[in-house]
Amino acid sequence: MAAIMEIEFKFCIPAGRLKAVEAALRRGTVARTRLQARYFDTADQRLAADGVVLRLRKEGPRWVQTVKATGDNALHRLEHNVDLGTAAPAPQMDPQRHQGTPVGERLAKLLADGTPLVERQSTDIVRLTRDVRVTGPAGAVIEMALDVGKVVAHAGTSEQRESPVCELELELKRGDVQGLVSLARRWSQQHGLWFSTVSKAERGARLLAAQETVEAVKAEPPRFADQHPDGPAIRQAVVASCLAQMLPNASEIAAGSTDEEQIHQLRIGIRRLRTALRELADLDPASGAAQAAEWESPLVDAFRALGALRDCEQVVKLAQPRLREAGAPDFDPLAADGGAAADAPSPGDIVRSPAFQNVLVSLIGFTAAKPAEPEPAPAAEGDPPSAPVGANDARRLLRKRLQRLHKQVLRDGERFESLDTESQHRVRKRLKRLRYLAEFVAPLFDEKKEGADTYLKALRPAQDALGEFNDEAVALALYREAAARDARAWFAVGWFTARREAGAKACREALAKIEGAARFWKKSG
Predict the structure, then answer these.
(1) Whole-prediction pTM value?
(2) Which residues touch 174 (CB under 8 Å, ≥6 apart)?
(3) What are phi and psi of 152, to 5 degrees?
(4) Which helix (H) or strand (E) holds 78?
(5) Is there a single domain that holds both residue 206 and residue 274?
(6) Are residues 309 and 444 in the same domain?
(7) In terms of residue numbers, what domain contains 45?
């Protein structure tokens, strides 16, 4: 028996790159194995709903029973394997084989009521494996596995649904996780691979349900390992929570989804992540600012590219009914721009881009890395300290950040009507940073989150007012540009221009109300 914590990357391989990936893998010693697996779940799929996978797999001549479950970040997986030898006929599934392990206990709780297991799907995979040694400070031994084959869903009838598998897995066998990250970055860049969160078991579940699009993943608060984390631990937990929203949505989009909500949630995740990198950099003086600078550009590029067309489409969709009601001529400001839209990259192109995939791999590695040891040597005179920020100092720094953003938002609100358009837009972005930072760190100051929830609720009227004001500014710019091509756009230009003064006043009044909100971070402790 073996109970382990897996740390691995999984990448999808574009069909046109498979030969090159296999040729590169074969430059070392490879082993070829046929893997025939049978996956089990309850009829109501409770294991899948809890992120648990239970299978029997024939690996060459031997049978292995495995249970896996999601871990605490994008790289970690709980796993327990039981070697059943070369039994013939095939052994029966027995969940009791995993007793006494963390993942086995999780499985036992799900099956405690005696609900029977049924075979839900199977896979037939040819796997090529090779061990790679990464030398240097981040030394590691990594197993590379190229899987080509199919997933078959058993719908309980003679009908079978199939989905092809073509993916590369990189699993850390021993050593530094940064060695794994280094190898993953190199292979993904060389071969145009993209990170995927979809397991073979999940592929089968989707086939069973005939599901083409899955629900977009929304933001969840960070999970801190203890009540008093130090600065680096706070940064890791917050970045991990951002990735938990980003990665599943990015994985779907990279695979070809054009679902509007998935794109929207990925952009929210990127915005939250950028806030975390910017506002929490001082919690890790040794590397926080440098990492934020390194990761910022690809994140900004992807965010803007994903939003370039969607934002305009959404604004026009909201604006046109109001304009028609006001008596405007029927006119679509985006219709004449079809040629430019046709030349724009697809959402999948943007997410699969080497720069964006590279930053995803780096961020995943960051969340999986062990905390750095404190620097024993003092910093040179005039240099910032390089030792990690302790729990008490971290809370002090976070209070200062929250207080600074709170005061800046109030100051901006007082003079909102006199600001130029770009500065007004910056106020909205600053308010978003205040909201996200408050959401991130609320558990550190307010265990029950009652005070934080009250504060966040007080921000909503200003968020709504600024959001509507910004949408109208985007619409005004769109129609003004379209007026050069079609005179019908002038009605909208005049209508939106006439609304600017009242809209700015509404924003000022909404921002002023934030002053009375009780600041949860001001409590003692």
Answers:
(1) 0.88
(2) 140, 141
(3) -120, 125
(4) strand 76-85
(5) no
(6) yes
(7) 2-212
Spell out the alpha helix ranges (H) of 328-420.
338-343, 347-352, 354-368, 391-414
Q: Give the pLDDT confidence score for residue 351 in this predicted structure.
A: 97
Rounded CA gap, 492 and 472, in Å?
Answer: 10
Q: How many domains does the chain divide into?
A: 2
One DSSP character per residue, 26-77 reads: TTS--EEEEEEEEEEE-TT-HHHHTTEEEEEEEETTEEEEEEEEE-SSSSEE
Minimal CA–CA distance to 221: which of 235, 198, 237, 205?
237
Distance of alpha carbon 424 from alpha carbon 436, whole angstroms: 19
Q: Which two tokens stand for residue 428?
A: 């909205």
Question: Do residues 146 and 132 touch, judged by C-beta distance below 8 A?
Answer: no
HEC per residue, 413-471:
HHCHHHCCHHHHHHHHHHHHHHHHHHHHHHHHHCCCCHHHHHHHHHHHHHHHHHHHHHH
Q: Are residues 201 and 302 in the same domain?
A: no
Q: Give percent of the chain above pLDDT 70.
A: 92
312: phi > 0 → left, psi -120 to 50 → alpha, else beta; which? alpha
For residue 353, the one-letter residue type is S
pLDDT tens-digit series, residues 334-346: 886 554 555 778 9
Q: CB–CB of 187/11 below 8 Å?
A: yes
Reported as a single tens digit per residue, the pLDDT across 358-387 is 999 999 999 988 765 544 444 444 554 556
Distance CA 358, CA 184 (A): 9
Comparing CA positions, the residue from 144, 196, 132 lying closest to residue 171 is 144
CATH code, domain with 78: 2.40.320.10
Backbone φ and ψ for 54, nearest 5 degrees, come out as -125, 125
Of 169, 194, 212, the residue at which a domain comes to its end is 212
**284-315 pLDDT per residue, tens:** 998 989 999 999 999 999 999 999 867 788 88
Q: Which two tokens stand for residue 427?
A: 């106020």
H or E stretch including 333? Answer: none
Residue 475 domain-assigned (yes or no): yes
Q: Is residue 254 part of a domain?
A: no
Question: Which helix or strand (DSSP H or E) is residue 376 part of?
Answer: none
The structure tokens 């404190």 sit at 374
What values do phi and psi take at 19, rounded to 5?
-60, -40
